[in-house]
Write a structure and sequence with these properties.
single chain, about 550 residues, alpha/beta, seven-stranded mixed beta sheet, four-stranded antiparallel beta sheet, about 45% helix, globular
Length: about 550
């Protein structure tokens, strides 16, 4: 594993690009400052994929990414056996604060506790986090760098800036009066002061001087010739690119992923993809279909190992390798392919020379380690699929393109947790919801005993049955969604014997107040029209 922070990103960028360029596929993972921005965005079994996206859009815009893990997997062509080499990078991220850009973000307490439990290094986020920009922020920053006078930005430590100006003024006077004979002066950038802001302030105050910045210091020199002045102006234009690159930070890595368009692999990645889009590409669009289309354009092949494991589980019931779909469980389960002869020539994943070997050390919820686990799960699952049905005589170390062919039915399918439909298809229309989600209608018959809202009454009553969500449709009735058929069956059997409740499988025609009202209005309207027509016919007969 290679750790990447603000101070070594520039040095590591060529290594990162080479790893992405030469990879067969890229596994990734992210850690964030929270899961939901408010209680209104909590997941619900009533959510359609489109509703879930709308909730995510609201939350992601108010949260931030704290860590990004990237593991580039490539087949080791020099090895006799079926080996893959992994190059894993763990990036600490922190939003840009520069000029007009000073984003606010939420940090959810439960997420902080969760990360702390797994020894997450918060200091590296705040002290050494790599900045990032999406396209809208990049355009705003370009405008600021080219014409900062048009922007009204926050005061940036005015006293410290003034002290620096005073230092330069005293030096200038001393050189004019021959008290000192120095060609240049180095001024430290005070803590908390933005280098670019101080640079602008000094250049505005002292236009006759050559003022540049490097490594946290401001260098002040006299301009003696016209050639020096021209060189100074040329260097000023290069500086704009330097400050833009520094603030783009991790976005440059994201753009390498887009450039090389390698298959992108993650586990339970709907939220990860939403964060990637919002923070490194563009603000999330209002349109759910636009979001899917844009993602597919950026990354033509996306594989969600959560969705993959659930989909292939029936194929491997005999060896129970996919009984659990959590990432750590899948990783530990599939690693047994090397000790139990389930299939011949299973791929062996090794760390590339120069990258720290995780060995037997487990670091769950470190984004780099999770990306490494995810990539390992993918390549082992792909081997099982590609080998499924082959005779042992036909088995051999397989090529990655053969793995990708076996994975084709599962590409661009993203898992949705706790929703009315568990699958999003990025390259087309979403599949029809699976019938494992059961809708029930429950009505309280005796309402005189309690003034407690129907949803609260049912929540207390149904908590014993497990995974259910409740939505009141009237003062006495509610729709209950059960997460699986067994749960629905238990609720039906229990409440049908209770005289205080009416329970049935939900039917919109019978139980939806809106549809019942619409039918009643429709019936009245048709009745009125019929009476009118009948009266018209009778009147003509009388004539």
């Amino acid at each position: 594993m290679c750790e990447v922070v603000k101070t070594n990103l520039k040095e590591k960028l060529p290594l990162i690009e080479a790893a992405i360029r030469n990879a067969d596929f890229i596994a990734f993972d992210t850690e964030f400052s929270g899961l939901t921005a408010s209680d209104n965005e909590q997941n619900s079994l009533f959510d359609t994929p489109e509703i879930r996206y709308c909730k995510l859009r609201k939350s992601v815009s108010q949260l931030t990414v704290t860590q990004f893990g990237l593991s580039a997997f490539a087949k080791d062509t020099s090895a006799v056996y079926n080996n893959y080499l992994a190059q894993t990078f763990n990036f600490y991220l922190y939003p840009t604060a520069f000029g007009p850009l000073d984003p606010h973000f939420l940090f959810q307490a439960s997420s902080g506790h969760f990360l702390a439990h797994y020894k997450f290094d918060f200091n590296k986020v705040f002290y050494e986090g790599i900045p990032f920009l999406n396209e809208g922020q990049e355009n705003l920053l370009k405008q600021y760098l080219e014409n900062p006078q048009k922007f009204s930005c926050r005061a940036d430590f005015e006293y410290e800036s003034q002290q620096c100006c005073s230092t330069v003024a005293k030096w200038l006077v001393s050189t004019v009066e021959k008290i000192k004979d120095q060609d240049s002066l180095l001024v430290d950038v005070p803590a908390g002061v933005t280098e670019f802001v101080l640079l602008l302030e000094l250049r505005n105050r002292f236009p006759q001087l050559w003022i540049s910045a490097s490594d946290g210091k401001i260098k002040v020199s006299k301009i003696l010739t016209e050639e020096q002045r021209l060189e100074f102006e040329e260097n000023k234009s290069k500086e704009l690119g330097k400050y833009l690159d520094e603030n783009l930070g991790f976005t440059r890595v994201f753009r390498l992923l887009v450039k090389y368009r390698k298959p992108l692999v993650g586990h339970n990645i709907l939220m990860d993809l939403s964060f990637m889009y919002e923070k490194f590409y563009k603000a999330l669009p209002k349109s759910y279909n636009q979001f899917k289309s844009d993602l597919h354009q950026l990354f033509p092949i996306i594989i969600d190992t959560k969705r993959l494991s659930i989909s292939v589980k029936p194929l491997f019931e005999h060896n129970r390798l996919f009984d659990k779909s959590a990432l750590v469980d899948l990783y530990n389960s599939l690693k047994t392919l090397h000790t139990n002869v389930v299939v011949l020539y299973p791929p062996v994943v090794k760390n590339q020379s120069g990258f720290e070997d995780y060995g037997d050390t487990a670091l769950p919820h470190q984004a780099g380690y999770d990306a490494y686990m995810c990539g390992t799960v993918l390549i082992l699952a792909a081997h099982l699929l590609a080998s499924n049905g082959l005779r042992s005589d036909d088995m051999r170390p397989l090529l990655f393109r053969e793995y990708l062919s076996a994975l084709r039915p599962y590409c661009n399918l993203v898992h949705v947790i706790r929703a009315s439909s568990s699958v999003i298809r990025l390259d087309g229309s979403d599949p029809q919801p699976h019938n494992s989600i059961q809708w029930l209608y429950i009505e309280v018959r005796n309402t005189t005993r309690s003034k407690t809202p129907i949803a609260v009454q049912l929540a207390d009553l149904l908590s014993q049955f497990g995974n259910v969500d409740i939505q009141a449709v009237s003062k006495t009735g509610a729709i209950v969604v059960a997460g699986n058929p067994k749960c629905a069956k238990d609720v039906l059997q229990t409440l049908r014997g209770n005289k205080n409740f009416y329970v049935a499988k939900y039917s919109a025609w019978r139980h939806s107040p809106r549809i019942k009202t619409a039918l009643w209005i429709g019936g009245v309207t048709v009745g009125c029209i019929s009476v009118g027509l009948l009266w018209s016919v009778v009147s003509k007969l009388w004539e």
